Amino acid sequence: MKDGFRTIPLDRIEVPERLRAVDEDHALVISTSVAEHGLLNPITVQGTADGYRLLAGAHRLRAVELLDWREVDAFVTSADGEETLLIEIAENLHRNELSALERAIFVMKYRETWERKHGKINAKGGRPKNRVNLTQFLKEHLGSGFKAHVAERLGLSESAIKRAQYIGARLRPELRQALAGTEHADNQSLLKKLAALEPDAQRTVAKSYAAEPDIKAALAHVSGRPREKTDDPLAKLKRHWRHAPTATKRAFLEQLAESGELNDLIGEL
């Protein structure tokens, strides 16, 4: 199947497990724009024996589904397995809602995939160890290095790529998991500080934070300067409330209401 633009039926598009789930609200916003202006940016698919496999444009595809379209404009590519993964990761990196932690992880995934395709990256520049398709590599990448290549491909600055690579490469999986979805996941300076810690220290921070969601207290366990404890019950309550999931907060309030304590407290104000 030749590469190129074409209009394809929606029911022939296979949607694989994505690196990130589709946000229905975001897809709805896109559908409003598509209804008014049309689909300005076609989706990207890979031709298969039975149809097509979606590579990029999950939100755009969902948007036209919401509009009950039967066909969609697409760029069909014959990219290989590694190249298709690069396209999928790049698609995710273009999303504005990514946290600093998520961006770092995706940059590392992009680098790992790129190295599998071209060979290990030489920090001082030069050719990859894998010399297959060397002419293409020289044409596309020589003299630019990985950071410059990714910066152009993903629309990110070289400094942003460098920071993301550092965080993604050094941050332990245990700490990534502990911070995912928290306010700290988008605190790049904190992530760099944590990434600079030795692996054992990062594990200690992750374990401490999981037990008590207080990053300063968790860091104190590895700084050699224990954080001064406070017996202020209001401060402790506010801290735990701030870090509690919405479902936990709702259950807590419902329990207070059922016991009558909530009405009593409100009546005393």
Automatic annotation (TrEMBL):
Transmembrane segments: none annotated. It holds the Pfam family ParB_N. InterPro entries: Chromosome_partition/occlusion, ParB/RepB/Spo0J, ParB/Sulfiredoxin_sf, ParB_N. It comes from the Bacteria. Residues 6-93 form the ParB-like N-terminal domain. One of its GO terms (biological process) is chromosome segregation. GO terms for molecular function: DNA binding. One of its GO terms (cellular component) is chromosome. PANTHER family: CHROMOSOME-PARTITIONING PROTEIN PARB-RELATED (PTHR33375). Belongs to the ParB family. This is ParB/RepB/Spo0J family partition protein. It comes from Kaustia mangrovi.
